[in-house]
Amino acid sequence: MSESEKTGGSPLSADVAGRLSEVFDLVGPLYRRAYTKVERDVAAEGLSVGVRAVLSMLHGRGPMTVPQMGRFQALSRQFVQRMVNDAAARGLVEAAPNPAHKRSSLIRLTEEGRTVIGSVLDREREVLRGVDGDLTEGDVDTCLRVLAGLLAVMDD
Hints:
Helix content is 67%, strand content 5%. The protein has 7 helices and 2 strands. It has helices spanning 3-7, 14-43, 49-61, 66-73, 77-89, 111-128, 137-154, and strands spanning 93-96, 106-109.
């Protein structure tokens, strides 16, 4: 399957494809700076960035298995399991029976987990309100579409 077939569109021009490298030039530093900021923020809650990622994923997607979380985040199952164990030790997540698989429990947020991640996400949204006010919902939709397309191409 060609790259354009994977993304569902026609091939990009060389100029547009070249401009996508500019996206990568920004995404790397953005990720590292966001990671550092999130790391400082979640420390106030006594969380690691990894536990925050698990809580956020469960908050947004609902109960998931550890392997599902690993695939979704492109992380090893072992790393995700350590983060789940850390979150469970704090009472933020719990295992629930998985009707689809007896040996792979679903992990879900506890009430305390919902409260903690809600507080973290509220603080993060407040920081994000500082982004240039000229952005529109359409701008964000386009950004998400471009990043999802890049992710799909890299996911082979």
